[in-house]
Give the backbone structure.
Amino acid sequence: MLAETICSAVSAAGLGIAAITAYRRRFLTATRIAAYSLVPVGLVMTGVVAWVSGIVFKPTVWIGFGLLGAAWLLFMTTRAVERRGGTTRKERKAARAASPDSAVAPGASSPSLTSGAPVPDAQPRGAAKKKQTASSGEDFSDIEAILKKHGI
């Protein structure tokens, strides 16, 4: 009841200010003020003010907002733990897709796509390791060049 009275008084005052503004021949501003002053009465007549005051003053509504916040917090916590654990949706999907009937032998480290004959490596293992360390050194030289370029 009090909210409706206050909204009606605000609208009446706004319409009075709009009338004074129109008297000063500032019709565009007066029309804008009149439009703003009719909003509170419109909200009272549609029942929005009663609905908002009902929400604000009911403790069950605030408990509901608290429960929604707690649910959101639990969702975000589980997502953070999931990300930190390293298991992502893609990894779980890949694990489900890998079935016992896959093309990988139980003791093999890669799928057996050949006829069973071992494929010799093009390079000895020691050469492959040396090449990897050389390529990582090249990566650092690129990074160093970029940092020197920017004066870091």
Observations:
- Residues 59-85 form the longest helix (27 residues).
- The two ends are 68 Å apart (CA to CA).
- The mean pLDDT is 80.
